[in-house]
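Ligand: fructose -6-phosphate. Inputs:
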Amino acid sequence: MCGIVATIGLGPAIPVLLDGLRRLEYRGYDSAGLAVVDGGQLTLHRQVGRVRELARQVPGTLPGHVGIAHTRWATHGKVTQANAHPHVDADRRIAVVHNGIIENMGVLKARLQASGVVFRSETDSEILVHLISRYYAGEDGVPAGDPLAAVRAALRVVRGTWGIAVLFADEPDMIIAARNGSPLVVGLGDGQTYLASDPHALIAYTRRVVFLEDGDVARIDARGVQTFQLDGGLVDSVIETMDEVWGDEDSGDYPHLMLKEIYEQPEALERCLSGRIVPAGGTAKLGGLDMAPKDLAKLSRVGLLGCGTAFHACQVGVQLIEQLARVPAKAEIASEFRHRNPLVDPDALFFALSQSGETADTLGAVREIQVKGGTVMGIVNVVGSSIARSCGRGVYIHSGPEMAVASTKAFSNMISALAVFTLMLARQRTLSAYDGRLYVEQLLAVPDLVRRYLENPGPIDTLVEWVKDAGLVLFLGRGLSAPVAAEGALKLMEVAYVPCIAYPSGEMKHGPIALLETGSPVIVIAPRDELRDKTLSNLQECKARGARVAIIHTEGDDIAQHADLSIAVPETSPFFSPLLTVLPLQLLAYRTGLALGCDIDRPRNLAKSVTVE
Ligand code: F6R
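Predicted complex:
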C-alpha cells in the first residue's frame, strides 16, 4: 500500500525523497507528496498520479536537509490533491505522512471539528496532524513544544494501525516516527539518517538498519535513532545489516516488468530448489524450518494461509501435502482466518505465504496463531519483511524482486517451496526412497520445461481476441487445476479488467453454467492426470451450450481435438502441472492487458503490498 520515506542530515533532502518515492511507487500510485523544512519554513508539494508528476513540480534546487514524503494508495477519501500526503496543521508548522487506518476517525474528527478545527481532506490521516498540533501547543497537560510528547499523546487517543513520520517546522533537527501494524525501518548513514516503510527505498544509501517494532515511537536525527515505547522508556535499537538487497526496478530488455518476471520463472524456480534437494536420498532439507525428523513425524495437520495469488498457491500446496504426505491440510484466506476465532491445534504447523511479507491480513493471521500458542512459519519472498521477522522461522522462496503488481514468479516459487516441504514430510511418512527419487527427478526437470514452454507459448494471441471484449470469461479446472483456474481468472481481471469467474469444473453445472451463451469464452485447464476425463465431460457440457472452449493441456494429449482452441504445455508429473499450466494464463493476462492498452505493471486501484486490512 502506501509508502513512506524521510531523511535528515548533511545532504539535501529532495533527491533522497524523490528517489525513495520512485522505489516505493509499486506500493501505491494514486498520489505522491513531500514536505521539507528550511530556514524555519515548511514547504509542501503534492500531486495526483505518479511520482514523476510530483518530481516535475518540485524544484530540484529546493533547499532543506530534512523532509518526509509519501506515495498513496487511497483508503479513506478519493484520489485528489487535497487527500494526498503529507497533511499539515492549520498553521503549516507540522506535517504528517501516515500508512494505515485510524479506526476511530468518526469520533475524533467530530470532536476536533467541534473545537474549531477545519479539515481540508477526507482522509483519516489528517486527524493525526491536528491532534499532534494541539498537544504540541500544550493541550491536556502535555509539555508544550515537545515533539516526542505531542506525538505520543496523539497516538494514545487514536485506534488503528499506523506507520507515521512527523516533521516540525520549529524542530528542524529531528523527525518523529512511530509504528503500529505498518512497517517502518530506519537507515543509518554517515551524518545522514533515513526512514522508510520498506528497506528497498534505502538501498542506495545504507545497509545498516533498525526495524521499528509495533508500539515504538522514534526520534530520528542526523546521528541516528532513539526508540521509545509508546507508554514506556527507551528501547535498545538493534542494528541489522541488510544482506539480500534488490536492485532497482528495471524491466531490462522487456517492455514491462510483468513480462520480464514471467520469463524469469525458470531461473527463479532453480534458485528456489537449489541446495534444498537431496537426490540420493530422494528427499529434501529446508534449513529455515529448523525441524527435526521427529517433529515432522508428529505433525497433526498443516494449515496454509495467504491472500490472492498466495492463497491460490496454498490451495495447490494442501493437495500436494494430503496426496503425498497423507497429512490433513487446509488452505485458508488469511483475512477470514484471522477474524473467525480459529481453533489452533498445538501439534499443527501453519505456514503464512506472502510474496511481500507485508500483507496486513496474513500478518494478522500469523499473530492470531502465535497468540493461541500455535507454530507458524513464513513462506516469503522478501527477506527481512514483517512476516518473515514475525515468524522467525520459514522458507524464503528466492524469486528475486517481483515488482509488477500482478504476481507471477512468486506464485510458482511458493508452489515449488511447498513441493520441497511436501517431499520432506512425505519421506517421514509414507513415501519410499524410490518414489522420493522419482519425485526429485521430476521436480528438478520443471525449470527446463517452463523454459521450453516460454520459448514457444502457442496461440495465446487468438485467445486474446476471444477474451478481450468478452462480458465474462469462465475458467474451469479440477483438483490441482482448480486453483490454477482461479489464478488465471485473477490475473486476467487485475491486469486487463476483464470480468472472470473460476470454478472447479464439477461445480459448474450447479450454477455458473447458466451464464453460458453461444460464443461465451471458457478456458479449461486439463493436464493429463486422473481427473482429465471428468474435466473433458465438463468441457463437453460447455460446448453443448454453445460456448467457445479453449483447453490448456499436456503436449500430445488428444483431448485437444475436443476444444475450439488448444494450448499445449510440456508433460510433467501431475503434481507439478500447475507450474506449467499457469504459464499460458499469465501470458494471456499480459497480452490482453497490452491489447486493451492497460497499465500492465500498475493496474488501477491496486498496490503491490496490501498493508491495510
Ligand atoms: C495478484 C496479487 C495479489 C497478491 C496478494 C498477496 O496478482 O499480486 O493477489 O498475491 O495481495 O500478496 P503477498 O503475496 O505479498 O502477501
